[in-house]
Automatic annotation (TrEMBL):
Cysteine disulfide links: 765-821
Protein name: Glutamate receptor
SMART domains xref list: PBPe (SM00079)
UniProt subcellular location: Membrane
Protein species of origin: Rhododendron griersonianum
Record key words, sorted: Disulfide bond, Glycoprotein, Ion channel, Ion transport, Ligand-gated ion channel, Membrane, Receptor, Signal, Transmembrane, Transmembrane helix, Transport
Subunit note: May form heteromers.
Length: 962
């Protein structure tokens, strides 16, 4: 019984203790102080310097955070560290262990992209946030929602690298990168960015982490045989240390080379062996810029002391940006944990099934989504600067550009996304984006050179530029190729050759040895057309082509041309026409056919209008119908020589004739001037004024053999059977002299430089003239391979040559001084015939005048005969017949006649032959004025056409005496 009571007492005590423990002893996840402990895993490479530095930074970050927030924080992160041992499998195993056995709610690390890829995959499956400094762009938070990149994306540095290349104008680069996720991830972004500035990636060199030293040397020797000397290296220190050691050994760290390293290597230069740094002298690098602050300097002091305590055998005590990002990432995680209010760590286990894998058996974190939400968009000022996580990724700010000199790197400038390259980060509001190399500090290039490398060199084994030149039988002033009789060496001369020599020898900022190679057959004949010669560059037979090579579109598909060094255009050479003064029909040529026809029509129309106004009131216009038609033609055409004697009674007639006489005056004056010109200077008129004249008349045309002009003529719809090609100026002269009908040509079509040279000879300029230009071209240029870095430099040199007097001197040597041919003074390249366009205004005025008067006359006539039109007793046909008869009848003007009869008086002699058959004008003075205006007899007239002239003179004298 006592034992039973004792047993019950023990059970009661245990029950009390259990109840007390529920309130006093914290549940799982709490410590004795009542703080909630949040388990967080850390996966770092403990043997790597970045891992060691980051591990110390993470621990100090949490200590600093909770020291500053001890009164407000209800949660505390507990770290569980694992060593990845630099292996992908070890990193994955560590992640599974942390999730399965510890049930961590977040993982910091790993830092290598290859290790982080699988860990991120596990985090997505278990919904546990993974905060990693992996920089490879292939790892995207957009594709992995539980991946938080606590470092800048590797692609963010691409624009800064591109800006450096653009600043120095390098047109070709070679990419060298390690064969890992880290190395491959940034390559597509670099490729696109360089293409945006027209810089070609000529070669990609991929090196394995396990590559032997011999393999590295072999790859370097292959790069030495190439032309490009700008290398962009994207590696981590492990492979880069061996690589740059071999670069130094291969003597590729000498003058003329350019080496640019990316941020992953530039940020870790302090941890590399001094011998490796010595082999990297002159290298340019970019790295994320960390702004200086007192907070950062104080932390570095504390960190050095702490790091030395934890790693007494390590002699390096320099902080790197990865350590600062690890510090800020841990701080961000602590802030997010505090904000999210997460509690006890729990994982939802899957429904029990057989043969579950370790990954499937872990389950899904209940607190992960809440913690992820707190991490998505967070911003604060950390040790690394402004630490802003947006959509799970750290936003980049600016990059520092450094030059490896001495024992480390030296700052030479900065790059920002808004302002580009600059010497400092103090910007004015007016500054724009710039990639000017002058905005960088002084740079010591490989080989301790202060001269900016041009970025390319001639390949080893081919010390001279192979320059192809055309072989031709004529036009030696432009290009001529001969061989030395003793040495058989090629001797190239001519205008184009001298310009090329001047550019290469005196205006390039560096020396380029070259040799001329003729484009010829074994028989010393031309090996093909100019198109064939240019195409040899793309085949690799020449490094350049120099000569009278015209820049045209179809050739630019295979080569790159420099800027032109001659004037552009295609023109025609045609002979002067024979003397037209021997032509029996030359009097017809002053006016074009359309002007002749228009003038004739207006003569007839004006005669008809005057007849319509006069035939009812003027006896001289009243005759049988046949004679009236003759009168219409006679009166209008007599005005051409002002021989009209008929008196005009109607004021409308006078108005129309006054305007028409003015038109005739202008026409006859212009005709006389044009005919005079034809009879004096027409002998200098070209035989063809337009290329369309040659096409329509189906004439033969000539061009220079091998020239692109043949294709141009085909495009102009010329009949190819009418083509003839020539090789010398003498052949040009012979063909033009014969003419198209005698086995020659009607015109020679060639480029302006040849035509101007041809016409500079006195024996040719007196016989031929130039018409055009009829087609635009770019002129002569030097051809180089596609993407050749020589093109921009040679183009700039060509501009310098053409702007200097040296070009004038070369032209005078080979092409002679430009003089005007005296025989061609006054020559015209357009027809002297007058066209209708020149007289449209006159004809419009005459037409408006005649039509206006005619409309007024018809209106008055219809008004006077309105009774006839308004009559209801007749049909329309009868009305029209009646109106026609009325129009044909003579109008009674007896009252007007009486008014026109002058009074009889002393001293006034009235001819006895006066008659009333021809009505007089309404007033004597008006009649006399009209007669004076329209009479042909020197302005002297009478009231009768039959009155002798001497009688009129007597009347005038009698009036004066009176």
């Amino acid at each position: 019984m006592q034992e039973h009571q004792r047993y019950c007492s023990q059970l009661f005590v245990l029950l009390v203790l259990f109840i007390i423990s529920l309130y006093v002893v914290p549940i799982s996840g709490k410590n004795g102080s009542g703080l909630i402990e949040v388990d967080v895993g850390v996966i770092l490479d403990a043997d790597h310097m970045v891992g060691k530095v980051s591990q110390t930074c993470i621990s100090m970050a949490l200590e600093d955070f909770y020291a500053l927030n001890q009164n407000h924080s209800t949660t505390r992160i507990v770290l569980h560290k694992r060593d990845s041992k630099g292996d992908v499998v070890e990193a994955a195993s560590a992640a599974i262990d942390l999730l399965k056995n510890v049930q961590v709610q977040a993982i910091l690390g790993p830092q290598r992209s290859s290790q982080a890829e699988f860990v991120i995959y596990i985090g997505n499956k278990t919904q546990v946030p993974i905060i990693s400094q992996a920089t490879s762009p292939s790892l995207s938070p957009a594709d992995n929602p539980y991946f938080i990149r606590g470092a800048q994306n590797g692609s963010s540095q691409v624009e800064s690298l591109t800006a450096v290349v653009q600043a120095f104008g390098w047109r070709e680069v070679v990419l060298i990168y390690e064969d890992t996720d880290y190395g491959r991830g940034v390559v597509p972004f670099l490729t696109d960015s360089f293409q945006g500035i027209n810089t070609q990636i000529k070669h990609r060199s991929v090196l394995s982490l396990s590559a032997s030293d011999d393999h590295i040397l072999e790859e370097l020797y292959k790069l030495m045989t190439m032309q490009t000397r700008v290398f962009v290296v994207h590696m981590l220190p492990f492979l880069a240390s061996r690589f740059f050691t071999k670069v130094k050994q291969a003597e590729m760290m000498n003058k003329g080379y350019v080496w640019i390293i990316t941020d992953g290597l530039t940020s870790l230069l302090d941890y590399m062996d001094p011998t490796v740094i010595n082999s990297m002298q002159g290298v340019i690098g970019v790295k994320p810029y960390v702004p200086k602050s007192s907070k950062l300097e104080n932390f570095k002091v504390r960190w050095r002391k702490r790091f030395h305590q934890e790693n007494p055998d390590v002699d390096i005590f320099e902080m790197n940006v990865f350590g600062l990002w690890a510090y800020d990432s841990a701080t961000v995680l602590a802030m997010a944990v505090g904000r999210s209010g997460i509690g006890v760590s729990k994982f939802k286990k899957p429904v029990a099934k057989e043969n579950l894998t370790d990954l499937a058996a872990i389950g899904i974190s209940e607190m992960g989504p809440r913690l992820l939400q707190s991490l998505q968009n967070i911003e604060f000022n950390g040790l690394s600067g402004k630490f802003h996580l947006l959509n799970g990724q750290l936003q980049p700010l600016s990059f520092q550009i450094v030059n490896v000199i001495g024992k480390g790197d030296r700052e030479i400038g900065f790059w920002t996304q808004k302002y580009g390259i600059s010497k400092n980060l103090s910007f004015s509001n007016s500054k724009n984006y710039s990639t000017n190399k002058d905005d960088l500090g002084a740079i010591i290039w490989p080989g301790e050179s202060n001269v900016v490398p041009k970025g390319w060199e001639l390949p080893i084994g081919e010390p001279k530029l192979r320059v192809g030149v055309p072989v031709k039988g004529g036009f030696m002033e432009f290009v001529s190729v001969e061989r030395d009789s003793q040495t058989n060496a090629v001797i190239a001369t001519g205008f184009c050759i001298d310009v090329f020599k001047e550019v290469m020898d005196h205006y390039l900022p560096y020396a380029v040895p070259y040799e001329f190679l003729p484009f010829e057959t074994p028989d010393d004949e031309s090996a093909g057309s100019y198109d064939d010669l240019v195409y040899q560059i793309s085949l690799g037979n020449y490094d350049a082509v120099v000569g009278d090579i015209t820049i045209v579109s179809n050739r630019s598909r295979f080569v790159d041309f420099t800027l032109p060094y001659t004037e552009s255009g295609v023109a025609m050479v045609v002979p002067f026409e024979d003397d037209d003064r021997k032509n029996a029909w030359i009097f017809m040529k002053p006016l074009k056919t359309d002007l002749w026809l228009t003038t004739g029509v207006f003569f007839i129309f004006t005669g008809f209008v005057v007849w319509a106004f006069e035939h009812r009131v003027n006896e001289e216009f009243r005759c049988p119908p046949g004679k009236q038609v003759g009168m219409i033609f006679w009166f209008s055409f007599s005005t051409l020589v002002f021989a009209h004697k008929e008196k005009l009674i109607s004021n409308l007639s006078r108005f129309v004739v006054i305007v028409w006489v003015f038109v005739v005056l202008v026409l006859t004056s212009s005709y006389t001037a044009s005919l005079t010109s034809m009879l004096t200077v027409q002998k200098l008129k070209p035989s063809a004024a337009d290329i369309r004249d040659l096409i329509q008349s189906k004439e033969y045309v000539g061009y220079q053999k091998g020239s692109f002009v043949e294709g141009l003529l085909k495009n102009k719809a010329f009949d190819t059977s009418k083509f003839k090609n020539y090789s010398t100026f003498e052949q040009y002269d012979e063909a033009l002299s014969k003419g198209s009908k005698k086995g020659g040509v009607a015109a020679i079509i060639d480029e302006l430089p040849y035509i101007r040279l041809f016409l500079s000879y006195p024996k040719y300029c007196a016989k031929y003239t130039m018409v055009g230009p009829i087609y635009k071209t770019a002129g002569f240029g030097f051809a180089f391979p596609k993407g050749s870095p020589l093109v921009p430099d040679v183009s700039r040199a060509v501009l310098n040559v053409t702007e200097q007097n040296v070009m004038t001197r070369i032209e005078e040597i080979w092409l002679g001084k430009r003089t005007t041919c005296a025989e061609q003074d006054g020559a015209r390249v357009t027809s002297d015939s007058l066209t209708l366009d020149s007289f449209k205004g006159l004809f419009i005025v005459a037409a408006v005048t005649s039509f206006s008067a005619l409309i007024l006359f018809l209106s008055i006539f219809l008004y006077e005969n309105w009774d006839t039109l308004a009559s209801n007793d007749s049909s329309i046909r009868d009305k029209l017949i009646a109106m026609a008869k009325t129009f044909d009848e003579e109008k009674d003007n007896s009252s007007d006649a009486s008014k026109r009869k002058p009074p009889t008086g002393e001293g006034m002699a009235v001819p006895s032959t006066a008659t009333t058959d021809c009505p007089q004008s309404p007033a004597t003075s008006d009649s006399q004025l009209a007669e004076w205006i329209f009479s042909h007899d020197e302005g002297l007239s009478t009231t009768e056409t039959s009155t002798p002239i001497h009688e009129t003179i007597e009347i005038v004298e009698s009036n004066e005496e009176r």
